[in-house]
Amino acid sequence: MAEALKVGMTHEIERETTEDMSAQKVYPHVPNVYATRAMVGHIEEVCADLVLPYLGEGEQTVGTGMTFKHMAATPLGMKVRFTAKLTKVDGPKLAFEVEGFDEVDKIGEATHYRFIINAEKFNSNVAKKASG
Questions:
Q1: What is the rounded distance in angstroms from the CA atom of residue 107 to the CA atom of residue 99?
Q2: Are residues 111 and 100 in contact, defined by beta-carbon separation less than 8 angstroms?
Q3: Burial environment of residue 21 by CB neighbours within 10 A (0 to 12, 13 to 18, 19 or more)
Q4: What is the pTM of this model?
């Protein structure tokens, strides 16, 4: 397990928003802007990226929960930036505070939870579930 993970660690990502990130990809009768589903994915990405260098052999993380606000619309083509801060390490249970910004406004904030797993055991359990 990742002994080096420490509360207070931070990580940041920046992405350019594209048509694939449009809210209209989910439902055509909404504005053609950066989608909530894309923001949630970027929140997961920045947190998983923060942890990745500290995982042991065969370890991965999975998201287990999120409290989230999408606070402002972002036009497609604009860059978005997400900063994650590790706020709790309780064995394999991790908590993060995340803020998101576009080139003009703060666009979102979240508390996100992840869990460190053994990938082989996890994938075996998923395969058993899939086979009935």
A1: 8
A2: no
A3: buried
A4: 0.94
Phi, psi of 92 (to 5 degrees): -80, -5
Average pLDDT, the chain: 96
CB atoms within 10 A of CB 32: 13
How many other C-beta atoms lie within 10 A of the C-beta of residue 82?
25
Report the distance separating Cα 64 and Cα 122, nearest Å.
14
> Which amino acid is it at 112?
H
Distance of CA 34 to the CA centre of its chain: 15
Candidates 94, 88, 83; CA nearest to 117 is: 94
Q: State the distance between the two ends of the chain, measured CA to CA, in whole angstroms.
A: 31
DSSP 8-state secondary structure symbol assigned to residue 89: E
In contact, 35 and 21? CB cutoff 8 Å: yes
- Name the percent of the chain lying above pLDDT 70: 98
* Distance between CA atoms of residues 96 and 11, nearest Å: 11
Q: How many CA atoms lie within 13 A of 30 on its CB side?
A: 11
Can you tell me the mean pLDDT for 35-55?
Answer: 98
